[in-house]
Design brief:
With 608 residues, the chain is an alpha+beta fold. Helices cover 23% and strands 35% of the residues.
Length: 608
């Protein structure tokens, strides 16, 4: 547009020079120059045809109806929201549903397990016209969206009434357990409204078999509380199990949030075996933390003196041959101290080695060694990105280690935060076998400190175990996996662990519902499938992969959540339309009148 202005200004200067300097017409020359400038300016605009944005306001409204499960929960106002949305849309407006995705309007009961309004508002604003959101205000993404986006819509909030309810907010069960071990379980219970009693009955069943029934104390409403229970050794046989937890409370208005399902794999071989030789604080904290973060059954063995081994949880003596057999069968072997050469020989599975300062293989550089950061090129860097390294206590020392070909550095440390950086964690992968070596000593201090340091310790162990047990070159077990347990209204995620993922895979479903589905994977190797609540045993039609997936009847949408504050009044909705100059008819008229006026004026003065 600036170029057009400069061209018109130059043409005006030429016209002024002709009439005022060459023809010396005085005041009349100013008028003639002005007419010529206006005419030429209009022609230039029509020639270059620049576009200008124009705000277009008004238009039919777009009404967004919240169709998440919370709208039809106890105390919800689905019927009122449905009538309100229809009235606001009228005859000309567009009515859409939103939950996890945006979909055309229908009158079916809400089914989505999440309520995301951001994408819905963006799509509605692209249409132009007013945007109206009808919701109970319990939106999953309300706190992550820019205020300008939320304020760009008008809101009709219909918060649900507080109903008397008790809910199983969470149930923690180890993913793997050993046949001879008890299974610790932690349940989290929430209460709202005026319940009839202060206790409830918690039942644990597998299919038709009742495993345990106990009375639990409810927290005063509104509140949450954790309760512990234990399944005795031998309660579950070896194999895959689906456990159902059912909470029964007097006066509960919302029974759909009282049932939770969990899967557990019972095996006679531990998923992770930890060998500690000699016993020290590092080994004790290592076994305890691995039980918390690995999701697998963990068995720890320690050698307090030569020729004597004990199981670290029960302190029961075990034979050395049993320790060797457990180390050979383990999915992951973690060795603290100098036992690696004796117990990990000829092993083909992943190993995490934690040398100690007393190892005969090297000496120990004692001192305060501060871990700086995760090496950006390390496979663990993404999982450790949130660690506040400056807040971690120092390591007690490092074991000097010469890097071999193909090894990478995961963490580095400097003594006193000065001097040369030395490796604190080293990894390698050869022929599909992965190995980590922690050459920094004293990481148990992170767990002992608690807070952010303990979370960094747990994050390091979780990242290491995940990398060791997951190989993109040679996947262990089935190449296709699926979510174990998902809440109602959330799709099941099937993941292909190899590279590249196939274009599609046909999977048959059996159990509470039967049929087949075609999985189409995204670039990350993930395919999403929406299923009704139930237990599904799935298998690829071509064979080679199978598993069990549970879709719970529970959804976090049934539990009362925070209601967003109504945003400020929406500004008038408008659309920006680009209107080119040639679509403005009056520019042609201006050019015609300007040139006709100049010609008539010149004829009147007797000019050619």
């Amino acid at each position: 547009m600036l170029g057009v202005i400069l061209v018109v200004a130059a043409l005006g200067a030429v016209a002024a020079f002709v009439y005022l300097d060459r023809e010396r017409l005085g005041a009349e020359g100013v008028g003639l120059a002005a007419l010529r400038t206006v005419g030429l300016g209009a022609l230039v605009l029509l020639l270059f045809n620049p576009a200008r944005g124009v705000r277009v306001t008004g238009g039919p409204p777009t009404v967004l109806l919240d169709a998440s499960l919370s709208m039809a929960a106890a105390g919800g106002s689905w019927a009122a929201a449905l009538d309100t949305a229809r009235a606001l849309a009228g005859n000309d407006g567009l009515l859409l549903r939103f939950g996890m995705e945006v979909s055309p309007f229908d009158t079916l009961e809400p089914a989505d397990g999440l309520s995301r309004v951001g994408r819905a508002i963006s799509e509605a604003r692209a249409r132009g016209g007013p945007v109206i959101v009808v919701s109970d205000g319990e939106l999953s993404d309300a706190r992550t969206l820019p205020p300008t986006l939320l304020a760009g819509a008008s809101w009709v909030l219909l918060p649900r009434d507080t109903a008397a309810s008790a809910a199983l907010l969470d149930v923690h069960v180890p993913e793997q357990a050993l046949v001879r071990d008890s299974i610790p379980i932690t349940v989290t219970i929430g209460t709202w409204g005026a319940l009839g009693a202060g206790t409830a009955t918690l039942e644990v069943v597998e299919g038709e078999r009742r495993l345990q029934v106990l009375e639990v104390e409810l927290p005063p409403p509104p509140g949450t509380a954790r309760r512990q229970l234990t399944l005795a050794p031998g309660a579950l046989r070896q194999g895959e199990h689906v456990l159902r937890f059912h909470l029964r409370a007097e006066g509960d208005a919302e029974p759909r949030d009282n049932v939770r399902d969990r899967t557990v794999s019972v095996t006679d071989e531990p998923g992770v075996v930890v060998i500690v030789d000699p016993p020290d604080w590092e080994g004790r904290f290592l076994v305890r933390a691995l039980r918390q973060v690995s999701g697998a059954s963990v068995r720890g063995y320690a050698r307090p003196e030569s020729g004597r081994w004990v199981e670290m949880q029960s302190l029961v003596p075990v034979e050395e041959q049993a320790v060797r057999a457990a180390a050979r069968r383990a999915g992951l072997l973690v060795v603290r101290g100098g036992a690696k050469t004796q117990l990990a020989e000829n092993r083909r599975g992943p190993v995490w080695n934690w040398p100690a300062g007393s190892d005969s293989l090297s000496h120990f550089y004692a001192g305060d060694w501060y871990v700086e950061r995760a090496t950006p090129t390390s496979p663990l860097a993404g999982r450790l990105a949130g660690v506040a390294w400056d807040s971690l206590p120092p390591l007690s020392g490092v074991v000097p280690l010469a890097l071999a070909s193909g090894e990478w550095i995961g963490l580095t440390a400097r003594q006193g935060r000065r001097g040369v950086a030395r490796p604190a964690l080293v990894g390698s992968e050869r022929d599909g076998r992965r190995e980590l070596t922690t050459v920094g000593g004293g990481l148990w201090r992170w767990a002992f400190r608690g807070g952010a340091a303990n979370e960094a310790y747990r994050a390091l162990l979780a990242a290491g175990v995940d990398w060791l047990l997951r190989s993109e070159v040679a996947p262990r077990g089935s190449p296709l996996t699926a979510s174990g347990v998902v809440p109602r209204g959330v799709p099941v995620a099937f993941r292909w662990r190899g590279r590249p993922a196939p274009d599609s895979v046909v999977v048959s479903l059996a159990g509470d519902s039967a049929g087949t589905v075609v999985l189409r994977f995204d670039p990350e190797g993930t395919a999403l499938v929406s299923l009704e609540p139930g237990v599904y045993r799935w298998a690829t039609v071509a064979g080679g992969a199978s598993g069990v997936t549970v879709v719970e009847s529970y959804s976090s949408e049934f539990v009362p959540g925070a209601v967003m504050s109504p945003p400020s009044a929406a500004a008038d909705a408008f659309r920006l339309l680009a209107v080119p100059a040639r679509q403005r008819w009056w520019l042609f008229l201006v050019a015609l009148l300007a040139f006709a006026g100049e010609w008539a004026w010149r004829q009147r003065r007797g000019l050619p």
